[in-house]
Design brief:
- This protein has 715 residues and is of the alpha/beta class.
- Helix content is 36%, strand content 20%.
- The strands form six sheets. It has an eight-stranded parallel beta barrel with strand order 11-12-15-19-22-23-24-25, surrounded by five helices. The chain has a five-stranded mixed beta sheet with strand order 3-10-9-5-6, covered by helices on one side.
- A hairpin with a 2-residue loop joins strand 1 and strand 2.
- The protein starts with a helix and ends with a helix.
Length: 715
């Protein structure tokens, strides 16, 4: 690689090589064209050596062209920021006034200005860098800062972070347990074919009776209105708002019993179906909700509440509603998403779109109503959690990215990388890598906005939640990005790790929300230590907690990290019974993920050894049910060990992990996984599998009783 291009890549945070976790001895080198592509994607010219030189010079001058950065993020104990001042200002008077974004309080603060050794001649003026140390106490949070010198008044944002993320006091005293559920998968006799917020409300009661304190959920974010079959909860159109499919239509205040009569048979059919039929469930709910929306418009009290909600959510809600309405108008005639629309409709800020919003105001209000009602029903769940006394409560999941064909990207395209999306390189679980096609923040633009979009995103998920899972938490420091073009390779893009980590800590404290980082995959060296030092919990998955990079023995419970949330697997991994019989291996071969018969048989041989290793660690830790001890070695063909789920649940409950999450799929011996990464619904029914037992019957099953009893022996 050209030396200057290498220098530019370093300054822009574009990795020129990376290690393949599957083969740590190999380092993958990135070619020049990939570096040039991502430089352009970030907004910098790099097509020729001359452009590279010019961009390097511009980057070198960049900090000296502004008195203050747009934002400074620091810990409370180190309240420093720098400023660039003309030499004549150094001996003058300074003042610093801060206005708290949390309280609105405005005050002058004490500070010390110290000249730094760096200086630069710009034109005929000499400029110096100075350090400003705030000596007054600052509460955790954000501040609008006004810094005045002889030359003028300058503004920036200061973010004061705690040393660590929030940790509930209860976790210092005892280990807790709870459930990891996919809300859509909850089956009940009353829902309309998909789990909803009333099912979640009723699940809180199950937790209260069983002694569980945590309910882990899949992402609840809004998905595409026109393509309900595109059901991945990780492919949202906005991480600021909720998926209306979770609305319990019969709990909407305007619902009347006769609204159900004409569709009774269809509801019964959808409810009885083995898999979720999103293409029927969502339109059915929307049809009835449109009727209820019209009724709401006749109720002054409800309309007053609705207006207050719309005002609070502001422009973000307006943009979401406009995007959904425009998509509904265009999807049949414009294949290729919003980028295929007429130019004047490709931005919410165009005069044409603003005119459209005025003309279609009542229609846009329907989409806002969907968010209004979804939020009302979720808030009802949060209130019930508090009343039930769950120590942690709802544990939400924040996706690492947003769909590129989404309201978020349409609303603010410059905030995201151009012509590329997030993904993952090959790792131990996904040897071919993953192309997620998710919109990824441009780190330069994100900082220029004082991280406001990132803050809003974190807050939308953390507010009222007891815990928040950051999907692919490594994205705080780096994200694997891949060009949209099929023949282009990807690389890592670096983010402002310390800033983003501290913002997570601020939001964690302001919302009293525990943070868990999903860190399965290609993890940078030292990264886990850094997030652990910040009190971010890791995830300890049984299939991953093994020695020798997944080839050795399963780790004993005493080896599990204390500051972690443990589980058997995740939605992307096989449940216990599926793993035991190797059905996931057969499925991978069928889907072409495993490329050959030889590779498949090698996987079967390894799985046979892994089953022995699992039995061994369960034996050593004496976790088999007292009334159902292991009776055989269970070689392939010898059936399924009775009591295996109980033994594994007790094993993980025994671990050091502060939180243990049980998956209903393992309790009820489900032998299919919820999602097979890298496949679409034409190959596998991702995100469509319902649990085999109705919510109303859960507590009356022997499997539930025995497995929860096994957990409670240790927690």
């Amino acid at each position: 690689m050209d030396e200057k291009l290498h220098e530019l890549a370093d300054k822009l945070g574009i990795a020129v090589s990376y290690v393949n976790i599957c083969r740590p001895e190999e380092r993958h080198l990135i070619d020049d064209e990939t570096v040039r592509f991502f430089a352009r994607a970030l907004g910098f010219k790099a097509s020729t050596p001359e452009e590279v030189e010019k961009t390097l010079r511009a980057l070198d001058k960049r900090r000296w062209q502004n008195t203050l950065e747009p934002v400074y993020v620091f810990e409370q104990k180190q309240k420093f920021f720098d400023a660039v001042l003309p030499e004549a200002d150094l001996d003058g008077d300074f003042s610093l006034t801060l206005t708290s974004r949390q309280t609105g309080e405005k005050r002058e603060v004490s500070f010390i200005v110290t000249a730094l050794p760096e200086s630069r001649l710009i034109g005929k003026k000499k400029y110096h860098k100075v350090s400003v140390e705030i000596t007054s106490e600052l509460e955790i949070g954000y501040y609008e800062a006004e810094f005045s010198t002889a030359s003028g008044l300058w503004r920036t944002v200061l973010a004061a972070a705690p040393e660590k993320c929030y940790m509930p006091e209860i976790l210092e005293k005892k280990r807790l347990w709870g459930y990891n559920i996919q809300l859509y998968s909850l089956r009940s006799r009353r829902n309309w074919g998909v789990g909803d917020f009333t099912d979640l409300y009723n699940f809180v009661d199950i937790c209260r009776r069983s002694g569980a304190d945590v309910i882990g959920l899949n992402p609840l974010n809004v998905l595409g209105h026109c393509f309900p079959e595109e059901a991945s909860p990780y492919m949202s159109i906005s991480r600021l708002f909720l998926n209306p499919i979770y609305i319990d239509v019969e709990s909407v205040p305007e619902f009347e019993p006769e609204d159900r009569y004409q569709i009774e048979a269809e509801i019964a059919d959808l409810n009885a179906a083995e898999k979720i039929d999103y293409g029927r469930v969502y339109p059915l709910k929307v049809k009835v909700l449109q009727k209820l929306y019209r009724r709401m418009r006749e109720d002054p009290e409800r309309m007053e509440e609705f207006a207050a909600f719309c005002k609070e959510k502001g422009k973000s809600l307006q943009n979401l509603a406009a995007f959904q309405a425009l998509y509904e108008d265009n999807w049949r005639d414009h294949w290729g998403g919003w980028r295929a629309w007429e130019k004047e409709f490709r931005s919410p800020n165009s005069a044409t779109v603003k005119k459209y919003c005025k003309e279609q105001a009542e229609r846009l209000d329907f989409f806002k109503f969907l968010q209004f009602e979804a939020e009302r029903q979720l808030q009802r769940v949060f209130k019930h959690v508090r009343e039930a006394g769950l120590q942690i409560g709802i544990y939400r999941d924040l996706p690492v990215g947003v769909g590129r064909d989404s309201a978020e990207v349409w609303s603010d395209e410059n905030l995201f990388l151009r012509d590329s999306g997030a993904g993952a390189p090959p790792d131990a679980f996904f040897p071919t890598g993953q192309k997620w096609n998710l919109g990824a923040f441009n780190p330069f633009e994100l900082k220029a906005r004082a991280y406001e979009p990132f803050i809003r995103m974190i807050r939308a998920a953390a507010e009222d939640a007891g815990a928040l899972r950051l999907d692919h938490v490594m994205s705080l420091t780096r994200l694997f990005v891949i060009p949209e073009a099929a023949d282009k390779e990807g690389t890592y893009l670096l983010y402002n790790f310390e800033d983003m980590l501290n913002i997570v800590a601020i939001e964690s404290h302001l919302n009293r929300c525990l943070i868990v980082g999903e860190s399965i995959g290609n993890v940078p060296e030292g990264f886990l230590d850094k997030i652990a030092a910040k009190n971010i919990m890791s995830m300890s998955v049984l299939w991953n907690e093994r020695w020798d990079m997944g080839w050795g023995d399963f780790k004993a419970p005493s080896w599990y990290p204390e500051n972690s949330a443990a589980s058997i697997g995740t939605h992307d991994m096989p449940p216990l019974k599926m793993w035991w019989f190797g059905y996931d291996i057969a499925l991978s071969r069928q889907l072409g993920i495993i490329a050959s018969e030889e590779e498949m048989y090698n996987n079967y041989h390894k799985r046979e050894a892994d089953r022995w290793k699992l039995l061994k660690v369960l034996d050593e830790n004496q976790v088999w049910p007292e009334d159902n001890r292991r009776r055989a070695d269970y070689l392939f063909g010898e059936g399924y060990p009775e009591g295996l789920e109980e033994a594994v649940h007790r094993f993980l409950a025994k671990s050091n992990a502060k939180i243990f999450l049980v998956q209903p799929e393992d309790i009820f011996q489900v032998d299919r996984q919820q999602n097979v990464p890298g496949t679409d619904r034409d190959k596998y029914p991702n995100w469509r599998l319902k649990l085999p037992v109705n919510l109303e019957d859960t507590e009356n099953t022997l499997a539930y009783y025995r497995n929860i009893a096994a957990v409670k022996k240790e927690r």
